[in-house]
């Protein structure tokens, strides 16, 4: 094997691993079932339920919304909430508590997931 073959092979491997890393989480494990506790979602913030692949927000007291954790940019899973912003770790797309894009590269918001509130419990529909 000559030097050129090794360099080209290494570059191709690096590019492939980079693309695979961006798609990490795109094939999330099956969602858990059962209700979520409304008390786990702070007012003016959000909580990520990774086992359900959802992020639940509560912009104002008692007003809950849920969204898929899959970032519409390249399929990474959002994994952090900073104040009132939901953050994707791959390219730093940020979403507000309505799931709308604050900063890209994502061009569309997080996909809504129906949620029902019953007393102190949240059920994903």
From TrEMBL:
<dbReference type="GO" id="GO:0016020">
    <property type="term" value="C:membrane"/>
</dbReference>
<dbReference type="InterPro" id="IPR005805">
    <property type="entry name" value="Rieske_Fe-S_prot_C"/>
</dbReference>
<dbReference type="GO" id="GO:0004497">
    <property type="term" value="F:monooxygenase activity"/>
</dbReference>
<dbReference type="GO" id="GO:0016705">
    <property type="term" value="F:oxidoreductase activity, acting on paired donors, with incorporation or reduction of molecular oxygen"/>
</dbReference>
<dbReference type="InterPro" id="IPR017941">
    <property type="entry name" value="Rieske_2Fe-2S"/>
</dbReference>
<keyword id="KW-0479">Metal-binding</keyword>
<dbReference type="InterPro" id="IPR006311">
    <property type="entry name" value="TAT_signal"/>
</dbReference>
<dbReference type="Pfam" id="PF00355">
    <property type="entry name" value="Rieske"/>
</dbReference>
<keyword id="KW-0732">Signal</keyword>
<keyword id="KW-0001">2Fe-2S</keyword>
<keyword id="KW-0411">Iron-sulfur</keyword>
<keyword id="KW-1015">Disulfide bond</keyword>
<dbReference type="GO" id="GO:0046872">
    <property type="term" value="F:metal ion binding"/>
</dbReference>
<dbReference type="GO" id="GO:0051537">
    <property type="term" value="F:2 iron, 2 sulfur cluster binding"/>
</dbReference>
<feature type="domain" description="Rieske">
    <location>
        <begin position="33"/>
        <end position="124"/>
    </location>
</feature>
<feature type="signal peptide">
    <location>
        <begin position="1"/>
        <end position="31"/>
    </location>
</feature>
<dbReference type="InterPro" id="IPR014349">
    <property type="entry name" value="Rieske_Fe-S_prot"/>
</dbReference>
<comment type="function">
    <text>Iron-sulfur subunit of the cytochrome bc1 complex, an essential component of the respiratory electron transport chain required for ATP synthesis. The bc1 complex catalyzes the oxidation of menaquinol and the reduction of cytochrome c in the respiratory chain. The bc1 complex operates through a Q-cycle mechanism that couples electron transfer to generation of the proton gradient that drives ATP synthesis.</text>
</comment>
<protein>
    <recommendedName>
        <fullName>Cytochrome bc1 complex Rieske iron-sulfur subunit</fullName>
    </recommendedName>
</protein>
<keyword id="KW-0408">Iron</keyword>
<dbReference type="InterPro" id="IPR036922">
    <property type="entry name" value="Rieske_2Fe-2S_sf"/>
</dbReference>
């Amino acid at each position: 094997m000559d030097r050129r073959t090794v360099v080209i092979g290494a570059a191709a491997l690096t590019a492939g691993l980079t693309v695979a890393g961006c798609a990490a989480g795109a094939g999330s494990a099956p969602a858990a079932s059962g209700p979520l506790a409304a008390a786990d979602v702070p007012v003016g913030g959000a909580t990520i339920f990774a086992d359900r692949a959802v992020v639940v927000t509560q912009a104002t007291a008692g007003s809950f919304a849920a969204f898929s954790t899959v970032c519409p940019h390249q399929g990474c899973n959002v994994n952090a909430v900073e104040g009132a912003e939901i953050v994707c770790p791959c390219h730093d797309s940020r979403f507000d508590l309505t799931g709308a894009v604050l900063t890209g590269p994502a061009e569309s918001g997080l996909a809504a997931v129906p949620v029902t509130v019953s007393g102190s419990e949240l059920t994903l529909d």
